[in-house]
Design a protein that fits this description.
Strand order of the largest sheet: 6-5-7-8-4-9-10-11-12
CATH superfamily of the largest domain: P-loop containing nucleotide triphosphate hydrolases
Structural class: alpha/beta
CATH class of the largest domain: Alpha Beta
Number of helices: 10
Helix content: 10-25%
Largest sheet: 9 strands, mixed
Shape: elongated
Strand content: 15-25%
């Protein structure tokens, strides 16, 4: 007999954090380990275990890995190109996808588009379970966005057993649950949307997906700091985690892959949210540029990497004489810490006087740029605004600026410049050791910030 010896422990009541698993002797409102609120649960007393666990009959025989059939696990395209790009080609049968985002960002609109495209393929129906809205409200949104189809079945349910009953009745090929925090399991304790309920509901839906090879998309809420609401174990249980982002004052929406067991986890999909629905943007670089035939003082164009995707972005700066004892420093859609550091380096190493000037910096088009590769663009935009000297309109700049004013190399220079050349840029300022560079664009290596500023000043002469 093959078995595992288990040491029985005496019954001892206690408490455990559902977020990080930290064990406590008494209940606390806040976990002292992970600082999460409301996650301490009473742990059942340990029952004496058997001396041995007998080996049971396996559910299926083990096979050689070369004999495993992979055709049944091939990704099926959803019909939405930008979503398929992030998923790695499509959604895998039996996969559970968690899509999180702030309220009003467009999650439900995107998933209605996915349901419509899936139904148009004609392979199987779609079950759309809504726990936040009535079926009539979803129908009105589908009419407004043009996503009505006879093979889309709506179910306004918040009870888990009723949701499972709808699956047995409809037998869908894709199920969407909007949202997982609104579904309740009557067999488990806890409030709706709480840690215990979310974990129980997610576990039941994951088991359903694996048993019936049914792809399931779960909509998740986010907290004030932007993280996914509910227990952290929820992100570990699902196969794919997607983050839907966007500024409510902009039509641009970005879908980021945070976790993906079936494909790359660093892809980004771009969408444009409109009154009549949502549409993928396969070439979004034009949204972040304000192209002109001649350069304008205070602007510089760089190439940011969103995952593996190079996107051209324009950085703008305005420098004006201040009438305040402490000049203003305003930053929009840029890393304020890095911008402050660049301005200090610019004044100290580049001899650009900013101590008595108000400085405003921003990225164009609603795109947030936080990577160091945009340092040189910020520095040249501020210097250009301070000296009233414009960079040529066909120049793109790349590079990280160090505290000593040196230029540091950035990743993916070749891909960045290839995208710039495709959009008509002919010259580029790059740091040393940039690696192999593409043809079609002339590059000028600038070893430090002084050399880059000299290029800017030479333009004015």
């Amino acid at each position: 007999m093959v078995g595992v010896v288990k040491n029985a422990r005496p019954a001892k009541p206690g408490y455990r954090c559902a977020e990080c698993g930290h064990e406590l002797a008494k209940w606390f409102g806040r976990c002292p380990e992970c600082q999460a609120w409301g996650t301490i649960e009473e742990r059942a007393a340990a029952r004496p275990g058997l001396a041995r666990v007998a080996a049971g009959a396996p559910s299926s025989p083990a096979r050689r890995i070369s004999e495993v059939d992979v055709e049944t696990t091939r990704a099926q395209p959803t019909g939405v190109g930008e979503l398929d790009r992030v998923l790695g080609g499509g959604i895998v049968p039996g996969a559970v996808v968690l899509m999180a985002g702030e309220p009003g960002v467009g999650k439900s609109t995107l998933l209605l588009e996915v349901a419509h495209r899936w139904a148009e393929q004609g392979s199987s129906p779609v079950l759309y379970v809504t726990g936040e809205e009535s079926a009539g409200q979803v129908r009105l949104r589908a009419e407004r966005t043009g996503n009505l189809h006879q093979e889309i079945f709506l179910a306004a349910e918040s009870d888990l057993s009723a949701v499972l009953g709808h699956v047995e009745a409809v037998k869908p090929g894709l199920m969407i649950v909007d949202s997982v925090q609104t579904v309740q399991s009557t067999s488990d304790t806890g409030t709706v949307g709480g840690v215990t309920q979310v974990r129980a509901v997610a576990a039941a839906l994951i088991a359903l997906a694996k048993e019936h090879s049914l792809p399931v998309v779960l909509v998740g809420h986010v907290t004030k700091d932007g993280s996914i609401a509910g227990p952290r174990v929820l992100e570990h249980l699902v196969d794919v985690v997607l983050q839907f982002e966007g500024d409510r004052h902009s039509t641009l929406r970005l879908l980021r892959g945070v976790k993906n067991r079936y494909g790359p986890a660093d892809e980004v999909g771009c969408f444009e949210l409109r009154d009549d629905g949502i549409e993928g943007v396969p070439d979004p670089s034009g949204l972040f540029l304000n192209r002109k035939d001649v350069g304008v003082p205070g602007t510089a164009v760089t190439v940011a990497m969103e995952g593996k995707r190079p996107l051209l972005a324009e950085v703008q700066a305005l420098v004006a004489k201040s009438h305040l004892p402490s000049p203003r420093r305003a930053v929009s859609d840029l890393d304020s810490g890095r911008v402050a550091m660049i301005q200090a380096v610019l004044e100290r190493r580049g001899k650009v006087k900013l101590s008595e000037q108000d400085v405003f910096t921003a990225a164009v088009g609603g795109m947030r740029i936080t990577e160091p590769a945009a340092d040189l663009a910020v520095a040249l935009a501020v210097a250009s605004a301070a000296r009233e000297v414009a960079l040529p309109a066909d120049v793109v700049v790349l590079g990280e600026v160090g505290l000593a004013g040196e230029m540091r190399r950035v990743t993916g220079v070749g891909r960045r410049l290839a995208e710039a050349a495709r959009l008509g840029f002919t010259r580029a300022l790059v740091p040393p050791d940039a690696g192999p560079l593409p043809e079609g664009i002339r590059t000028l290596v600038v070893p430090d910030l002084g050399a880059a500023l000299q290029v800017l000043y030479d333009v004015a002469q």
